[in-house]
Write a structure and sequence with these properties.
The complex is a heterodimer of chains A (502) and B (269).
Chain A: H1 2-15, H2 19-35, H3 41-57, H4 59-62, E1 69-88, E2 99-117, E3 121-129, E4 138-139, E5 145-148, E6 151-154, E7 165-174, E8 180-186, E9 205-220, E10 223-226, E11 248-264, E12 277-278, E13 281-282, E14 288-300, E15 306-309, E16 312-317, H5 336-341, E17 351-354, E18 357-363, E19 366-377, H6 380-387, E20 397-406, E21 414-423, E22 444-454, E23 459-470, E24 490-501
Antiparallel strand pairs in A: 1-2, 1-24, 2-3, 2-4, 3-7, 5-6, 7-8, 8-9, 9-10, 9-11, 11-14, 12-13, 14-15, 14-16, 15-18, 16-17, 17-19, 18-19, 19-20, 20-21, 21-22, 22-23, 23-24
Chain B: H1 2-20, E1 22-27, H2 29-32, H3 35-46, E2 51-56, H4 59-68, E3 73-76, H5 82-90, E4 95-110, E5 117-118, H6 120-128, E6 145-149, H7 154-163, E7 174-176, H8 179-188, E8 192-197, E9 206-208, E10 210-211, H9 218-222, E11 229-237, H10 242-252, H11 254-262
Parallel strand pairs in B: 1-2, 1-3, 5-10, 6-7, 6-8
Antiparallel strand pairs in B: 3-11, 4-8, 4-9, 4-11
Helix pairs in contact in B: 10-11
The chains are: A mainly beta (502), B alpha/beta (269).
Chain lengths: 502, 269
């Protein structure tokens, strides 16, 4: 009778909570009851066996994780999108001031697993729709036929040719050293940056080393003192010594992010026989790498004020076999098709300093942020010269400034942000800039507005509108976008998104 | 014709009677190497005609034998895993554990090793490979040689859970088939360290180190003050019956628990 009573109590605690967590709780409870000599080991084992059987028969109990996994999270999002984007030709072309427009209904799905492993290792895998590096979208109805050479295959309506699942992220990392995170693989971008330089869908490949340390400064009556701080790998339990009085406290997160991304792998590095040539030039034998060095700090002032600045220097080394031609980026003196056919992807002469920054505070409960970014290419003169425009070396700057208010964390939250963005033709890498604003192009400037509303904790409705103009009328608008016009004299985009996040 | 039927019925009854006195026990090497064979010998002396088929190849095999119905008793030095219980339930098997003895897992080193005691943290670090030299724990400067049970052993996983926070063993650790092999290897190797059931600590050339000041003993295991203790089990399909129940009752009896004590395990009371 008593055993049944124990079983009922234990089973109740087990059933009323999460299965796995409660099973552990029940084990601890049984151990305590045995130690208190309230039940025997045999009685505890019988209850434990019954609970294990019940656990094994639940859905969670049938899911088995390998022993080294200490924590596992399934996450992701799905999105439905309507999009309009259009670009206008220049007024001095054969078809002046003509808009090319495109409307698309699209979806995307991203589903990921990330977890921690024993001994301070971690990992992540994310599957995504779309093979494109700068997009995870699939366009409805765009795969009704497939053309290969001169052969067209009709796939029919609602075909699945473009509905593939691709590995978007696959990385492994280590957090065993104090304040340091090491990551290798195809990873979420470890750099603090903006859409001006990096499309948010890009998951760079290579290695990254991140260091972050928090300093707490107390400005009390006795002057400045640094508070004692304990070490916590998960940054969740930082114990800070209590000051004698209520000082004015400044917390500074100092960080450094180093990255070595494999930009373009050459194959083979060492061919059989004599090294070949392309257009009279020896074929490259080295991989192209993108190296990044970022140092920065976030100053957290009292009353929710903060300021963050994170300068980063990008340098490109090696050759690769895809991007080692000189960038041109279009030419207004050529026909549209010839201008489009000029090199849009070369990464020659790029030594870029970027300085993203953000200032934030709260108005009541509403977070407000003012953000900006600035970039300069120190080798723009060479890049312009190689493109055939030696007098355009001054087209080396990119900058943005904007403001946002609100947040999208819970049901009925809202957010609005707007910004101005300007990118010169030779300022940044056109292969990395955001594909929506402005159609993966450089030599554009314009404004963008985004608004969002949380219909529930998990459902977000977003609207985006942007309008842009060409910066320098004497140059093309470099980069490969969805609009088949170069130079892109004007551009606009509208997107309506319904997001489900989980 | 009637006589033929009678002969047939008699023959079946005889065969049935013979099967009822045959007890198949499979599983844990910890239990099956010494304890259960000695219990079986004593039991046979009291129950002539009973035959035993004992296979000691690791706890996993004992639990699997209950699920497969190839043994009446499954010896195990660990609890059945959720996956095993689930697999059993899917076949309509009810895995019933009965605690038959306690076992303290003793950490042993070579008798000539100056180290006499270790902390739980040091044990974890040694077996996980964080500490690789004896000088880090007060020993002479030599590289630590780690001996563990093989992966099918219940002791292998129990030690990971009890002493290593479920971490993996160090890459260079050597896996041994049984307690006796571990004791023999540690006895020969001055830099060796391993773990064995409490029944095997009297092997030549080895000594037991205390853990956080506690050494494995009957009292420290029964009151659970020694950290590396574990219950050992007979698993049956539901409540045991027939010869299996008789043998289980014998194991739990005063006579059975006396044998438990004699072979180095800790009686449950």
């Amino acid at each position: 009778m008593f055993k049944r009573f124990i079983y009922l109590i234990t089973a109740a605690s087990f059933i009323l909570g999460g299965v796995a967590a409660r099973a552990q709780d029940a084990g601890a409870l049984l151990d305590l009851l045995v130690r208190k000599k309230i039940i025997t080991d045999q009685e505890a084992e019988e209850v434990r066996a019954e609970l294990t059987k019940q656990t094994a028969e639940t859905s969670a109990g049938k899911l088995k994780l390998s022993t080294p996994i200490t924590e596992l999270e399934i996450y992701g999002d799905a999105r439905l999108r309507y999009e309009y984007r259009g670009g206008r030709t220049a007024d001095n072309t054969s078809q002046p001031n003509d808009w090319q427009e495109r409307e698309r209904e699209r979806y995307r799905l991203r589903i990921g697993l990330r977890g921690t492993l024993a001994d301070d290792w971690f990992f992540g895998v994310r599957l995504e729709t779309s093979q494109t590096n700068r997009s995870t979208n699939v366009t409805f109805g765009d795969d009704t036929s497939t053309t290969s050479g001169t052969t067209t295959t009709f796939n029919g309506p609602f075909a699945k040719n473009s509905d593939g699942i691709n590995v978007g992220q696959a990385y492994l990392g280590y957090k065993g050293f104090r304040d340091i995170t090491l990551t290798g693989g195809k990873m979420p971008n470890p750099l603090i940056t903006t859409l001006m330089l990096w499309d948010a869908d890009i998951n760079p490949e290579g290695g990254a080393e991140q260091w972050k340390h928090t300093f707490t400064l107390n400005f009390g009556q006795s002057g400045v003192a640094q508070a004692e701080q304990s070490y916590s790998k998960d940054n969740k339990a930082l114990a800070i010594s209590e000051p004698a009085s209520e000082p004015w406290t400044l917390k500074i997160d100092v960080f450094a992010n180093l990255a070595q991304f494999v930009y373009d792998d050459v194959n083979p590095e060492n061919p059989v026989g004599k090294r070949g040539t392309t257009d009279g030039r020896l074929k490259p034998q080295t991989d192209a790498w993108l190296m990044a060095w970022q140092v920065g700090a976030r100053f957290n002032f009292p009353k929710n004020y903060y300021f963050q600045v994170a300068p980063v220097l990008y340098n490109y080394t090696g050759n690769g076999d895809t991007f080692n031609s000189h960038f041109v980026g279009g030419d207004p003196s050529l026909s549209n098709s010839d201008s489009l056919a000029t090199n849009q992807v070369g990464i020659n002469s790029l030594l870029v300093l970027e300085v993203p920054s953000e200032f934030g505070f709260k108005i009541g409960e509403l977070p407000v942020r003012i953000f900006g970014d600035f970039a300069v290419n120190f080798e723009a003169d060479d890049r312009a010269r190689a493109a055939g425009f030696p007098d355009k070396g001054d087209q080396r700057y990119a900058f943005m400034i904007g403001a946002g208010i609100g947040q999208l964390k819970a049901k009925h939250d809202w957010q609005i942000q707007a910004w101005y963005q300007h990118t010169d033709q030779y300022a940044v890498d056109p292969n990395l800039v955001d594909s929506d604003i402005w159609d993966s192009r450089v030599n554009m400037h314009g404004v963008a507005v985004q608004g969002g509303y949380a219909l529930s904790d998990a459902i977000i409705f977003n609207l985006t509108y942007g309008y842009a103009w060409r910066v320098d009328k004497g140059l093309g608008t470099g980069g490969t976008g969805d609009i088949g016009i170069n130079p892109l004299d004007k551009y606009q985009i509208f997107q309506a998104d319904l997001n489900v996040r989980f | 014709m009637k006589r033929i039927y009678l002969n047939l019925i008699t023959t079946i009854a005889v065969i049935g009677s013979a099967n009822a006195d045959r007890l198949v026990i499979k599983g844990s090497d910890t239990l099956g190497a010494k304890l259960v064979p000695q219990l079986a010998e004593q039991f046979k002396a009291q129950n002539p005609g009973t035959t035993f088929d004992i296979a000691a190849e690791g706890s996993t095999t004992g639990i699997a034998a209950i699920i497969d119905g190839t043994a009446q008793i499954g010896m195990s030095s660990r609890r059945a895993k959720s996956s095993e219980v689930g697999a059993a339930a899917a076949k309509g098997i009810n895995m019933k554990p009965t605690v038959v003895a306690y076992d303290g897992i003793a950490v042993i080193v070579n008798a000539n090793n100056p180290v006499k005691s270790l902390t739980k943290k040091q044990v974890e670090q040694i077996f996980a490979g964080d500490i690789t030299d004896w000088s880090a724990v007060g020993g002479s400067g030599s590289k630590v040689s780690i001996y563990t049970r093989n992966t099918s052993s219940g002791t292998y996983s129990d030690f990971k859970e009890l002493a290593m926070k479920k971490r993996d063993y160090a890459g260079g650790s050597q896996k041994m088939a049984g307690n006796e092999q571990i004791a023999a290897e540690v006895g020969k190797n001055p830099a060796g360290i391993g773990y064995v059931g409490i029944a095997y600590t009297k092997a030549g050339g080895v000594k037991v180190v205390s853990i956080d000041g506690a050494t494995p003993s009957i009292q420290s295991v029964q009151n659970h003050s020694y950290p590396y203790w574990r219950p050992t089990f007979y698993y049956t399909n539901g409540e045991p019956s027939g010869i299996a129940k008789t043998f289980l009752d014998f194991t739990l009896s005063a006579a059975g628990q006396k044998i438990v004590n004699q072979v180095g395990f800790v009686p449950i009371k």
